[in-house]
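Q&A FORM
Asked by: J.P.
Topic: structure of IclR family transcriptional regulator

PROVIDED:
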Amino acid sequence: MIGSPPMAVNETGDEQPGAASVQAVGVAFAVLESLSQTPDAIGTSDLARRLGMTKARVHRHLSTLRLLGFVEKDSATDGYRLGWKSYKLGMAVAENFGLRRIAHRHLLRLHKDSGQTVALAMPAGPDAITVIETIEAPGVVAITVKPGSVIPAPTAALGRAILAFRDNTQEEASFQSIRDHWYAVAINERIPGVAALAAPVFDDSGRPVASVGVIGSQAHVTQPPRQDLLAQVQEAASRISSALRSTRWRSAPGPHQHRQRSTGDKT
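REPLIED BY: S.T.
REPLY: Here is the structure written out as tokens.
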């Protein structure tokens, strides 16, 4: 039986992975990163084309990642999406970053004040977001956004609130209104009759690292938004940003009352 090639050993006796092993890990992470930017299941051929690899090579890695639980296969389309272990890994990163912990009490307050479903999202690549926390509002029609959901950023208020403040979108006219008013609204864009209102969250360097928003019926979330609801969403975004040591919201216009502290909110 032919075994695996021996690994190199350095001067301390530690095994060193060969070039093939390093390359295999790199391909696996490239596959996962590409899937993280795709909200819907994607076929092997399309994924291989996106990565510039052969279909056989990508299929090999998908099979291994599926066996390990990091990828799952959609039985209806035969496409692949991120699996449960990838979701847990992403949640662990968010927890380690501290964003969910920092934001939680502000989400609770927004939920209480607005009476709407609230959500917190982070970027998942250049063109997608991942919802990392939700608090659902009771109602006749439940509006459920599951944590771990990957959504195309341009189609969602939570996504556009982040995209508008990135350096590489400053010249795009489609984001100008969001930059001027510091909020994004999406009505009927993903679910008929459902609307969302979101505002950006910044870190200490002024980068948009997340967004917070409310999701409800278009009778409650309108464009232009009600001033009380807009103030509640922007206040939540401001306070979470302050807790991340950001001062960027101090320059924002709007009806909200920013009460950022130089040391950030205690969490």
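FOLLOW-UP: DSSP finds eight helices and ten strands in the chain.
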